[in-house]
Design a protein that fits this description.
heterodimer; A: 112 residues; mainly beta; 6-stranded mixed beta sheet; 5-stranded antiparallel beta sheet; 53% strand; globular; B: 114 residues; 7-stranded mixed beta sheet
Chain lengths: 112, 114
Amino acid sequence: TQLLEQSPQFLSIQEGENLTVYCNSSSVFSSLQWYRQEPGEGPVLLVTVVTGGEVKKLKRLTFQFGDARKDSSLHITAAQPGDTGLYLCAGAIRNAGNMLTFGGGTRLMVKP
Amino acid sequence: EAGVAQSPRYKIIEKRQSVAFWCNPISGHATLYWYQQILGQGPKLLIQFQNNGVVDDSQLPKDRFSAERLKGVDSTLKIQPAKLEDSAVYLCASSWDRSDTEAFFGQGTRLTVV
């Protein structure tokens, strides 16, 4: 059983569509991060959220941290083929040494 | 600024052989992590170092895996003997310190055990 559950696991959409990826847990996190990973590469950090209810925008990507700091969502507006990749959420628990625990990932494919 | 360097990029070995991976973190980063990423899954933390000390190795299969960071800079991860289920990408990451959770990852080493 994973500490962080991501849904959906796979998503295939057409260019221009919107999508939302979810990251859920029963644990409270001191911070939560979203990474994007392309084949053959390591994960690259997109954003860190630390405050319950926080919303951050990065161009067409909107990240939200749940009020109770147990869940998060990533919304992509008008998806483009360049958004294709594996999206990973990762949470840190302060009294567990701030170790980063990853979800299983959402594999997104955006078709032109 | 140079990123996290890992070598080799790819390794193919037979089961029961041994293998070692090397990681050089970003200069000045005190915290170093080794993750195992099996195809189609998220990374799983194997071990976390703070300088040359181990913070957590609770998910490291210690009967076959070992890791060290003797001088608090670069690190090696060893598997001996390897099993088929060890086939995965081994990712190294670093951050400024334990209070900083923004980790920077290397490209990883893809291990295939046949």
